[in-house]
Amino acid sequence: MNIHYIRSGDYYIPDLTLPEEPCPIGKWGRMHRDYLRENKPIQYG
């Protein structure tokens, strides 16, 4: 696995990208999202 780095000042930061297609979150992920939306709106953001 090759990791490419970008130089930012004196630091090298890995050049990471996320996959373009959305990943299904499943039943428990949807339940957690709904809980955050209803009870912790600041965290849901």
Question: Can you offer a commentary on this structure?
Answer:
It is built from two helices and two strands, in the order E-E-H-H. The chain has 45 residues and is of the alpha+beta class. Strands 1-2 form a two-stranded antiparallel sheet. A hairpin with a 2-residue loop joins strand 1 (5-8) and strand 2. The longest helix is centred in the last third of the chain and has 14 residues, at 26-39.
Short key terms for the protein model shown above:
45 residues; alpha+beta; 2 helices
Sum up the overall morphology in one term.
elongated
Helical residue percent? 40-55%
Mean pLDDT: 92
Q: How many distinct helices?
A: 2
Instruction: Profile the largest sheet.
Output: 2 strands, antiparallel
Strand content: 15-25%
Describe the secondary-structure layout:
Blueprint: E1 5-8, E2 11-14, H1 26-39, H2 41-44
Antiparallel strand pairs: 1-2
Produce a short descriptive summary.
The protein has helices spanning 26-39, 41-44, and strands at residues 5-8, 11-14. The chain has 45 residues and is an alpha+beta fold. Strands 1-2 form a two-stranded antiparallel sheet.
